[in-house]
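<context>
A single protein, sequence plus fold
<sample>
Here is the protein in question:
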Amino acid sequence: MVLHVPRDESLNGTESFLLALMDTFLLVSLLPATFNFYSPIAYMPMSTYQRQLDVNLMGNIHMTYTFFPLLREASSSSTRARIVFTGTSGGPCSPCPPLLSAYMSSKFAVEAMAQCLRMELHMNIPIDCCVINPGFVKPTMLMEEGKKLTTKMWDACGQEQGNNVAQDEYGGMMEHFMMYSAAVPGTHVSEVCLAAEHALTANSPRTSYKVGIDSKLAPIVGMLPTGVREKISLHGMYGILSPAGTVKGYRV
């Protein structure tokens, strides 16, 4: 079932559909979708930022509010329902690299919501709450879709600003980020599927599933002192540690 999660009307009627399945499936689970806009925060159109939050954050909230009564009905001491969210790679301790402000803001908010919800449920209702934290995943259509979104983003910046200053100042950085995304090793999508399968079917699911070596290392880097963390993040994507080499025209 495909849902447009930011819109309430897209969720109307799905409760009855899932109720029909509850006689067959002992466990009712949610796995909301996610997507990513790249843009310098100083020039990102507010509508773009809002769109990012609508899907990645409010979509999760809409789904939780809509299906929570069914999840509660499906849960018992012997059969626990669960909610599964998609977070960012390293979880709440991930470094925040340039150009990903909207994405990281939305994902940190999802992590905070999941933590609060998990403790609320633990204290009162037998429902598990998990977060899957995938790193770079390949192969996917994200690269091609990212290029299309970037073109739209530059067009939107130009229309809002009345000039091309955003692309002039950050275009080289964006191109390098695309090169980095293509060059960096990725975790096969099947590994994400295995994590999702475990989260959905295990008797005792984990609270967080770090998928890929980058996802496992990110929270370690994220807990370093701010200056050290940001230097590693910058050089990992744009400097001497980057598989795409050092970016030209910017200070790293």
Observations:
- Residues 16-28 have pLDDT under 50 and may be disordered.
- The CA atoms of residues 114 and 129 lie 7 Å apart.
